[in-house]
Amino acid sequence: MPETAPLPLDPRAIRLTAEAASRDDAIRQCGEALLAVGAIDEPYIDTMIERERSVSTYVGEGVAIPHGTLAGKDAVHHDAVSVLRFPGGVDWDGERVVLCVGIAARGDGHVRLLSELAQILLDADRARTLRETTDPETVLRLLNPQAHGEETPQ
Predict the structure, then answer these.
(1) Cβ atoms of 47 and 69 closer than 8 Å
(2) Which of 122, 124, 140, 153 is most buried, judging by how many CB atoms fall within 10 Å of its CB?
(3) What is the pLDDT of residue 24?
(4) Distance in angstroms (rounded) separating the CA atoms of residues 44 and 27
(5) Residues facing residue 15 across a β-bridge
(6) Which tens digits make up the pLDDT trace of 37-95?
(7) pTM metric for this prediction
(8) What is the DSSP string of 78-119?
(9) Residue 90 is part of which domain span?
């Protein structure tokens, strides 16, 4: 089985003690983390919120994966992921979200990123650790095991 490429996660885009007043505030913060690492231009954030208003990015188990619309692709400089943990939870249309993984991708890069994230989130232990950790290094290790000299769990 071929190894997957590491997720494009800059440590500066990991924020594990975030607080959000609303779903849109949480999405905006995910986008701001992507903006802070130079992955996007600011207009992409609005497309992330626009996407959420048409299709929920809540994936279950307290996790949402906000990303922009097709119209936002021009505002993406390079593929990137942001990870924000909201220990107090965020009301996501009646669901409680504690972890948001923001995605910015050029072309169809979001499909690969979503697929790789799904593999991580389908592993109950890794998903729980990701939702509960307060250590950025743990996030990096979970999302990029090869980059940390670890085997990718099968």
Answers:
(1) yes
(2) 140
(3) 98
(4) 11
(5) 84
(6) 999 999 999 999 999 999 999 988 899 999 999 889 999 999 999 999 999 999 999 99
(7) 0.89
(8) S-EEEEEEEEEEEEETTEEEEEEEEEE-STTHHHHHHHHHHH
(9) 9-144
Q: What is the pLDDT of residue 81?
A: 93
The answer to the question of residue 130 being in a domain is yes
Q: Could you say which of 67, 77, 78, 148 is catalytic?
A: 67
Structure tokens at 150: 């670890």
Q: Are 108 and 122 in contact (CB under 8 A)?
A: no
Q: Domain of 41: which CATH number?
A: 3.40.930.10
What pairs with residue 14 in β-bridges? 83
Q: Which phi and psi (to 5°) does residue 94 adopt? A: 95, -10
Number of domains in the chain: 1
150 found inside a domain: no
Q: What is the CA radius of gyration of the chain?
A: 14
Residue 111 lies in a domain: yes
Q: Is residue 138 part of a domain?
A: yes
Q: Which of 30, 26, 57, 31 is nearest to 43 (CA)?
A: 31
Q: Sign of the CA dihedral 144, 107, 115, 117?
A: positive
Active site residue 77: no
